């Protein structure tokens, strides 16, 4: 009797193998797999069927899923990670920045002119030439450029070029004419129209005077937006960024952005997964059609909202309890959306009741505290809901607020690169005590706060390896803190990778769908040139992405320097 059962089972299994042997579309073998799955942290091989991971294990475990149709990648012992998920980007502005004329490293006025001339030749009729980030201190003599330098080859093209610090820009005559700026135009409050000896504008506009021209620059056209997105998608793929969370800012219309992503999704060009957060002031637009957090498909989701509580440390508008150390009369400013506070509270209450996710930009300690107060009211009003409130940046923390962050289960959506950039000068503005709680990633983790990693691209570079390098070394860009700026806040490589994968996926309600190399999850993975767990952390910033896989499709292959669509 026993014999018969074994035989029957054998026949049954044999039939199954013969008739419908399961096979994989893609197999990656000989990899050093770091799964970010606590149950099985490491592996050697991965199998993918469709857009999902179906097996993770040894080469032999995965080999059984191979057929003659299976595509095989021999990873050659390289490190395979889940794809990077950037929790805070401005994707369209980022894409535009890639194609903007680059003037920052021009070493002379001649070179500056030449680069604008080259750009003018390829700029379509009616479009503006913008950005540039010029820096006249790199020229000899270091004199401000004037419109005369560029007018002769831009007779019909409006030009508006930013100085690198954002506090000045150069307009050509066409731009000044469109803006109605003449010798009769008075300097606006908070701004200066630079003039020559005869009183005529030279084209250089300082601070609030820039708005005179900014106000007449037309919003992006649909084609410009699509062009920027295609560039951004290609760039993200080359850096192993497989998901982004695109946050509203004043430079972009989020609903136009969503529409353009939708088009790219249909044409198979959307190679990065996107979660879009429009402005909180527009919360009703999503609420009225019943959208809730993380609504949509695996490639395109909405249901989040972005608000602003204050400005930035660099511009002296981050909002603090105490004055700036270098400016005793200034404690920063509560942002426009927070005045009056009751309006922001109403927006948050109603958005939360509608099931939308709230993400609020807050940088100074008092701005963060004020947002936590508002979030406390929201949680009290609708207890028991899973809402995953977020604070974007969370840069300068009051000591008392780490515990509140944890109690309210607020996600700290942080950008570690800023720590090594701002870290050069932040302490001069905040003093030592406040600086010790700046970009305090370790203290957040110690309090059990969820960290989500991102870059704020195009404010900082999109490259995740630079971000991981920053979190692990805290070595400021000026080389003055090789052992780390407030080194007690450094993270391990594993913690930084978690911030960029499971942490940012949690921040968008997607931790069950992606963020680890686990059977059943979306096949988003990245193959790196070096093992970031074993190399000198200083070298992490030089590590390259060899392959990027999104939904089982290779969207970046360094060998072929080519980007693919998800449709092929
Ligand atoms: Zn931002």
Fold and architecture overview:
With 568 residues, this protein is of the alpha/beta class. Helix content is 32%, strand content 21%. The protein contains 18 helices and 26 strands. It has a 7-stranded mixed beta sheet with strand order 3-2-7-23-24-25-26, covered by helices on one side. The structure holds zinc ion. Zinc ion binds next to loops.
State the gist of this model.
The protein is of the alpha/beta class. Strand 18 (304-308), helix 11 (341-353) and strand 19 form a beta-alpha-beta unit. Helix 3 (91-99) crosses helix 8 (222-238).
> First CA to last CA: what distance?
53 Å
Spatial order of strands in the largest sheet: 3-2-7-23-24-25-26
Rg, Cα atoms, Å? 26 Å
Give the overall silhouette: globular
Instruction: Let me know the number of strands.
Output: 26
**What is the oligomer described by this structure?**
single chain
Helix/sheet category:
alpha/beta
Give the topology.
Elements (H helix, E strand, L loop, with lengths): L1 H19 L5 E4 L2 E3 L7 E2 L1 E5 L2 E6 L1 H5 L7 E4 L4 E4 L1 E6 L1 H9 L9 H14 L6 E6 L13 H4 L7 E5 L4 E4 L1 H7 L11 E5 L5 E7 L2 H5 L7 H17 L2 E7 L6 H13 L6 E5 L5 H5 L7 E2 L3 E3 L1 E5 L32 H13 L3 E6 L2 H17 L8 E4 L7 H7 L3 E4 L2 H6 L3 H10 L5 H6 L4 E3 L10 H10 L19 H14 L18 E4 L16 E6 L2 E5 L4 E2 L5
Bound molecules: zinc ion.
Structure characteristics:
binds zinc ion, 21% strand, 568 residues, 26 strands, 18 helices, alpha/beta, seven-stranded mixed sheet, disordered N terminus
